[in-house]
Automatic annotation (TrEMBL):
SMART domains: DnaJ. Pfam families: DnaJ (PF00226), NERD (PF08378). Residues 147-258 form the NERD domain. Residues 9-70 form the J domain. Residues 65-105 are annotated as: Disordered. This is Molecular chaperone DnaJ. Residues 75-84 have a biased composition (Low complexity). It comes from Agromyces tardus. Gene3D superfamilies: DnaJ domain (1.10.287.110).
Length: 311
């Protein structure tokens, strides 16, 4: 099962339609091996992806299991959809968590449900809108919305571990979003290491940062850091506060380095952060980013609490 709704399916990796017969699948696999083999100048990552794809759909048993939504041929089909909302799990320790407000990923999940039902068509009943086969067949823009919802939820779980010194707001409404963009800022984090405005993203491929903006073929002309800066500015103006850092968080394998700085925007340090590095980056504070004193943290929290609305 792909890790993200935007991940290529095994059929896409092999370059065949999902209904290709066994012979066509085998031919495509052998061709993909030749093209991607490192010994002939191929990309090792793509070569590995081809082998994994074959493991998932290379035998009738594995293919049937994959098409049902199972992760591989040796495991049964899951009893619940891979991307359905997961219930909270009981905590195993007593360490205090960060104070959190809002519903991370809530608006993105609702947008996904609206879009996938509209795409399926009127009068069509979707027994499970998170069914893996349905998700894989949906247009990329719909899968992207679901991928973002999952990214926001994963970021929220990471931010919760910051501890009682931090306050986190999720899905904060803002009027600064551009056409077609969700009218919200994904996360605001306040603590002694600064005021962080954060977007959680998953474009399904690698991105970098240069001169204060993200780069990468998967962006399709988007300017994510500019959009984040506009949202942060709108919220900061309303609350009369200044963010000290603007962060965009992506899956670990979509960024070359754990933390990449990109200069400053209106005095706020901008950075691209791997998801696994996020909590430590916030706890430590970004290089060049101002820390806040205890009185200042309380004042900024009060101002934000007075103006924050949830999307």
């Amino acid at each position: 099962m792909p890790d993200s709704p935007l991940s290529d399916s095994p059929y896409e990796v092999l370059g065949v339609p999902a209904d290709a017969d066994a012979a066509a699948l085998r031919i495509a696999y052998r061709r993909a091996l030749r093209l991607t083999h490192p010994d002939t100048g191929g990309d090792p990552a793509r070569f590995n992806a081809v082998q994994i794809a074959w493991e998932l759909v290379g035998t009738p048993e594995a293919r049937a299991a994959f098409d049902r939504g199972a992760g591989n041929g040796s495991t049964p089909a899951p009893t619940r959809a891979a991307w359905a909302p997961t219930p909270p799990t009981p905590r195993r320790d007593s360490r205090p968590l960060a104070r959190s407000y809002g519903h991370p990923g809530g608006l993105s999940r609702q947008r996904y449900l609206d879009l996938v039902r509209e795409w399926a068509g009127r009068g069509v009943t979707l027994d499970d809108p998170y069914d893996p086969a349905l998700v894989r067949s949906a247009p990329r823009d719909i899968r992207h919305v679901l991928a973002d919802a999952l990214a926001e939820e994963a970021t929220a779980r990471s931010l919760a571990t910051l501890g009682i010194a931090y306050t986190v707001w999720h899905d904060v409404a803002t009027d600064a979003a551009g056409p077609g963009e969700p009218p919200k800022l994904d996360h605001i984090v306040l603590g002694p290491t600064g005021l962080f405005m954060i977007q959680s993203e998953d474009w399904g491929g690698p991105v970098g940062i240069r001169r204060g903006e993200l780069t990468g073929e998967v962006l399709g002309g988007e300017r994510p850091m500019r959009a984040l800066a506009l949202r942060a500015k709108a919220i900061g103006r309303a609350a009369r506060v200044k963010p000290t850092a603007l962060l965009i968080v992506v899956p670990d394998d979509h960024a070359e380095e754990p933390l990449q700085l990109g200069g400053t925007v209106r005095g706020a340090v901008v950075a691209l952060v791997r998801r696994s590095r996020l909590a430590s980056a916030v706890r430590e504070g970004l290089p060049g980013s101002a820390h806040l004193g205890g009185t200042e943290v309380m004042e900024v929290r009060s101002r934000l609490q007075a103006v924050v609305r949830f999307a």
